Each structure stands twice: as C-alpha cells, then as structure tokens.
Amino acid sequence: MKRRSIRTVFLSAALSALCLAAGGWGWHLSAVQKAVDTASSAAAPAPAVPDIPKSAKSPASLTAADSGSVLPPVSTPSPVQALSRRVTEYHLNARLNAAADTITATETVTWTHPGSRPVRDLYFHLYPNAFASSETTFMKESGGRLRSDAMPEDGYGSMTLLDVHTPDGVSLTHRVQVVQPDDGNAKDRTLVRIHLPQPVAAGQSVMLNLRYELKLPAIFARMGSDGRFVMAGQWFPKLSVYEPAGTRGRLEEGWNLHQYHGNSEFYSDFGIYNVAITVPQTYTVAATGFPVRTPAISKGEKTYQFYADDVHDFAWAASPDFVVADKAFSSPGVPGVRIKLYLDPLHKGLKERYFQAAEAALANFSKWYGSYPYTTLSIVVPPSDGNGAGGMEYPTLVTAWAAQEAAPDTSLERTVIHEIGHQYFYGMVASNEFEEPWLDEAFTSYAEDKLMEQEYGETPNLALQASLVTKPKPMDLEAWKYGGSSGYTQNVYIRGKLLLKDMERQMGTAKMDAVLSAYARKYRFRHPSTADFQKTVEKVTGSSWQAYFDRYVYSGGVPDFAVDRIRIVREPAKGASVLYRSEVTLSNAGSLYGRVKVRFTFADGRSILKDWDGYSRGTVFKLTSPSPLLSAEIDPEHEILLENAHVNNFRRAELPAASVSRWTMGVAQGIEALLGILSW
Prior knowledge:
Shape: elongated
Signal peptide: 1-21
InterPro entries: M1_LTA4H, Peptidase_M1_dom, Peptidase_M4/M1_CTD_sf
Keywords: Metal-binding, Signal, Zinc
Helix content: 10-25%
Binding site for Zn(2+): 418, 422, 441
GO molecular function, one term: metallopeptidase activity
C-alpha cells in the first residue's frame, strides 16, 4: 500500500531539517509513499455429521439449493498446473444493492489441511467489522484516520454472518465465536472461530457454506462506497493462515491469528477464486483475475463472473462512471498480459501515462524478480472523493490515487509503479503483513525508487528521509507495535527501504540485485520471513550478515557519530614556515558501523579524506599542516543511510587569531556550497 502520510511527515520535519544546515547538508525527499453480528440458531445439539471425505466434492458442483444461494451459479474454467500450494478454494456469489450500499453474498469455501495435526476449528477474518463503531481495535488505534483520509461521519459499516452450514445441511451458525487474541477488546469482532463437528486430518479437506450481508462503510481504509463508486476489498469472510512447522521459522504448527489493526494489512493462503458479481445494469466491474464469460443481463442487473488461481485475495470495484481502456502487452518475462484501465472520467485523457507506467513496471520487475505469471492486470482510478480506496494492492488489481487533478505530477506514475511492485512483494512473495510488514512495503519502496530513477529521472534524497526516522525500531515487529501511523511509516517504509539501500552500498549494486532476484524467485508463492531473507543475503554474498541484522534489523539500532572536539596548536615559527598540529576527537554513541569517512578542511581551501574503521566507540586523528584546520565532518557524502541525527557530525575549529581572515574566506566558500546543496 502506498502511504501518503509520509508527505505530512516530511512537511513537519522540513524546518528541522533546514536547521541542520550548521552541519553543512540539506536534502530532498521524494514522494514516498475489520462485530460479527451472528444470527444464532437455538442452542440445540447438532445432528451427527458423516466423515469428512479426504477429497471434498468440488464446490462448483453444488446447486443453489445446496448453498442456500439465490444468486446465479458459478462455473470453473479448465484446471491448469498449480504454481502454488492451493490451500483454499472460494466460490462466491455476490449481489450489490447500490441504493442501500449493501452486498448480499454466499460463499462456499474448501480448506485443505496443510499441516500434520488434526484441526477442530477454522478461523475467519471479518475485516469489514473494523468499521462497525468507534470502539473497534482498528478505529481506536487509528483514531479513525488512515493516511490523509478520515472515516466520514456516520460512515460505519459491518459484516453479518447469517448462516454457516456443511454441505450436508448441518448448521454451524451457533458454533461461531468471536475472538480477540491480540488485545481482548470485546468491541472488536474482526476474527471468528467456527468449531467443526469433527476434526480435519492432515491432507484432508473440509467444505463450509456461508451466507452473509455486508453493509458498506463510506469509503475509508481501502473499502466502501461513495454512492457511484464501490471498492470491495476484504469483502468476504476470509480464512486465516494455518502455518505448518517450519513456515517462517515456526517451531510448532498452528493458526496465525490476529485482529484487524490500525496499521496492519493482511495475510492469506494461496488458492482458487471463482466469483460471480451482480450489479446494476449500468455498472462496470473491475476485479482480480479474468472474466470467464460475457456478462449476463437480466431484469436491470448485470452478472459478471471472474476466475483467479494461485492468488491469496480477491477484490473488485464497480461504478457506472468508469472509462475503460485496455492494451495487450508482452516483454521478456511477461509472455502476455492485458492491462485494463478503469479510469475516473477526469483522467480519461491520461490513459497513456497509466499504460506507460504499468508497462515499465511489468517489464522491469519481471526482469528483476521473476516473470509475471498472470494474464491480466487491472488499474482502478477512484473518483476524487474516493481516495480512501486509492493506493492499494490486490492480486492482479491495483488502485491508483483518486482523480483529484486533471494533470497530476509523477505521483501518478510513482503510485502505479509502487502498487504493481506489490504484485511481487506481497502478491507472489507472500510475507505476513501482520507481523513483518517491512518485507512487502520496504522492498516495494526500494523497487519503486529504483524504477522511478531509471524511467523518470527522479533520484531520491535518502539522507533527508533518514532524518525523518526519529523513532527507529526493529523491523520484525507486529504492525501495530510501531506506536501509531507515524512510527509505522518511519520504520516499515522509510527505515526498511534505507536498510536495503545501505546493504546495497556495502555489497555493491550488482550483488544486491542478485540477492533480491534470488529471494523473490526462491520464495515465490511461499510465505517467507525476515530470517529467510537474511539466509538469502548470506548465501549470495558468501559471508555472514548476522552482526548487521542483529544491530539494524532485529533491533532499532542506528549509528550516532559526532565530532566531539578539535584542538589546534600553532608551532613556533621556524623561518618563514608555520605549522599547525590538530587533534580531532570522534565518537559513536549509537550502533557500531564500519568504514566511516572523515573530511578535514583547512583554512587554505585544502581538504583531505581519511578512513575510520568505525568499530570502536571513539578515535583521535592527529594532523599536521601549514594551514590551520577549519572543520571536520564525519560521512560528508551522507553514505551512512541509517544515521538519522547528523547535526553533531560536523564541527568548526576555534582558530588562532592570526588565521581569522583566511578562516572567514573559508566560511564564505562553505556558505556558497551550502546554498547549492539547499537548492531543491
């Protein structure tokens, strides 16, 4: 997800950054970027349930009567070779009531047990319940805000489970239980447990039929309706992830369970989605996957059907106002994909910009991180008042920023590129966004910067971005433990990206390219962890990075260099020559960091660079020169991207009186240089 809030962080920090001018630097920052109201049956004993078959019958073969659905049946395309371990299979029938802002739907879901121990419960995320009141965990943590958007007044929405039963008609509705494993908030109903009549053994499958209603909130935090535009993200009861032992370093298998938090995004298993969506006849639907038949029109409604496999989510958008354009595209690594645009009318003249950005992203990311394996990529542009749905990624579908300007700057391209980057880091390399959000956001931001510089000439000023990280924390924290939106953005987006850039500078660009390529390809259609990334780094480089990861990744370490003291002694004149002996004391109060450069500038205009290994808490440089030392500066080229407080990296010397005139000239030259740096 592209976070706009970093612009606010930047503006609030700009004045402070300018105050660092005494140290001699200034930088530019590039635009960075769910209660279940369960309708319970009477608490009567459930009838006996026959053994769950090892191979559940295909949900596609169920009739409408089987599932309790009154919606059109769905059909399944011919099977293709699986790219992922398809743990889940969803068959969804949904009907949008645009006038009431509601979606009524049925869901037939099959879960295949990927572990080794019997399982008695299934867990489902009911993400829309995050917007049921001001007392949910999401709303309390976020304050009703996400990025620059606020929850509209009285814009609440929720999901109600109306019925849960087995294919044999055994009701499980009374077995639904709300759980809050993270904070015990009784007002939060975004996660439920369904106790099964009998356990599911390893390798077996279980099928459930669900019927539910979704009251769409006003558009906020990735989903909702504004009357003529609907964004259906996280719109269906979605199974949690059951992690076998070894997944992401897990010692014992089990469910990965979390509520919907103010900063957290999502985590799901790969599977198959077969989805029928009925909307008013005038509406156009954009969705994950590809259409399997021409939309059917009946009684003023239009029914679309989509299919997607080897994906871990399904989203759709609908509007009567979409301006639709599509284009076939192929390149090495992209055998053939149809790029589809669903534009707000304000941006109908900008389709070539959207196409160009998408093509650049697909071509380059496929070259860098592995081929794009899907046949479609849809880009949805929300209307001006629908920005809460903008800047978000879903498998094969992304949303751009809302159309608020007729001629936007390159934030248009940057956002499209960022969200397409998530087709790799989140989409195929499916890390846990609850627990290690940097693995998708930082990696995508790194790729975004690289491509924006290559294609649009936008070079990020990373040192100023580093100065915005005022509260560095470990990169493997749960998303909600960063202390609010600002702390989350500082670390997950900015600091995480700077870590990758810092690693690149240490090992070299070619080696870093090889690291990310190897990581993306090895963990394609898998759930990797930070430790898995570390192993890839060490394998590709052939060296241990444990100390680095301990200091900077698994903790919030930052170096904090300082020029503590400059002492100058003028030697007695010998003939016409005068010598100045200088002692410069340096220290590092933060995390150790090797290979530090120090620049010494003299009153006669000369400067020299010396190296400090950086692995000690301090050192003293002794210099002798015919001209007095004017200043000392640690890391003058701002190569140490993880240091966030540079004001003490620079110190001027107190010069002997005889050198004042020449020192003054040096200051004038320094001011000229500073003004040049600050011109951005």
